[in-house]
Amino acid sequence: MKEDWKKRSIVYQIYPRSFKDASGDGIGDIAGIIEKIPYLVDLGVDAVWLSPVYASPMDDNGYDISNHCDIHPDYGTLSDLKALIDALHAADIRLIMDLVLNHTSDEHPWFQESRQGKDNPKRDYYIWRKGKKNGAPPNNWTSFFTGPPWTYDEGRGEYYLHLFGRKQPDLNWENDTVIAEIEKIIRFWIDLGVDGFRLDVINLISKRSGLPDGRRRIGLRGREHYLNGPRVHEYLRRLHRNVFSPHGVMTVGETTFVTPQEALDYVGHDRGELDMVFHFEHMFVDNFLKWFLLPFRPKKLKKVLNRWQETMAEKGWNALYFENHDQPRSVSRFGDDRRYRVRSAKMLSTVLYFQRGTPYIYQGQEIAMTNAGFTELSQYRDIETKNVYRLGRQKLKLTHRRMMKKIMKMSRDNARTPMQWSADAHAGFSSVEPWIGVQENHAEINVERQRKDKDSVYHHYKRIIELRKRYDVIVEGDYRPFYQGHRRLFVYTRNHGEQTLLVVANFCGRATRFVLPAVLRDKTFKQILSNVKDDVDVRRWTLAPYEARVFICHGATDR
Ligand code: TEU
Q: Beta strands 358-362 and 480-482: pairing type?
């Protein structure tokens, strides 16, 4: 990856529906985002990743696009989006748009034409098949949103494939015209001034020809026939060659289920495909296939993060994240949102953002917003959550209580409650009742309160961002883990030139003894960040629950 800004930028993800409602309809909008740009500047953000704001029936909150080159009226107009681009650029903040290219909405004109039948020029824009002789769907695959990924279309008399919702038909990337259409869409946004793209489920776009049955397994049957499919790299190299590279835009691919080795096939410096990818391995340390819950073990998370750091090393580049619009809140998931909410949130950010890679902060993470705490099914809005509840109750015969426990912990709506700006009504997000419930704890957990409190999570994030901009070692440095077998300590160094950074964190609610590894004892360390007040002797000390500190060795030269 050549351009430095892609490595150095702090990227802030905005889920527009829940960020800020300026129009007073209870739904976040583009005008609300523009209103909050000074907040993003104060935090130290360099780029915004904007989840979809395109025309959509909102079956999957915009990840079901019906017009890639127009804006949903909930959010505003194309000129509002252009105003957002200009306002962000005036504040020296870049814009990364979320592009969904594996599928569209079934209300997209392309699909409406494709389903007209065989002689329509768009008949092969999607993946249509006859069912099996016994009337069953074309194969035995299962969808990410439960159930078969095939829906029979009476009009066309065939099934169409949808790896996600039935209103999200998969595009046929085998069709050259589809790829040319996609290149036109990307050029449209680049011409409007967009600086990069987050590419939704981009490692699913190539399916094995024949769409054969998948081997029998629990969950996502058939995934071996489309995960990192046979032509995915060919397709991405074409996009890189034709549209990404000529304009120097940044690309981050969402690549579910990839291993570090497979990720290098996308982001390796010699690959000419993507700048970085979001992997999911650390999102599966406390569950099996998301809904079979497992106890969280810090050592498992440490192992995954260390492996990604060591595999990417100088060969590729990481996207550092713990949260996004699909995942539970990290302080509730990996920290302790009851006894140590502030300190554990600071520890998590310290462990994550001093690693090698581009940091991604999801809205609300910087103030340690917690899981939603919705106890009633009626409070949930997410299609995946509702489908999983139905599957659990009807197919697996699990009790309501059992399903609510899973949903309260893992629902995507945990991350989609309105951003908590203040203790005011509706958390200062809107002047009216929002589209989804506001958390009661917004009275204590909100931006306004934390910006006044120098010991808040917000100010800890600000300090981390300031340090990332000050010390080259954080961006350029290598990565060396220590205490790898330890169940509670997370320790690593970064080295670059004469700079050595040391991160020491206690990943649990019990005091833990630390002794400086022998190989580091010849260095003189200065503390540059801590989530607890007192000073310590870096050579040995007992860390308090969720304590985290960062040190830099003497001789560090400020950038
Ligand atoms: O998510 C893809 C994906 O794999 C998610 O479904 C994830 O596995 C799951 O939600 C974890 O609970 C992307 C978008 O981020 C998601 O919001 C969309 O629903 C999905 O693609 C379909 O576009």
A: unpaired
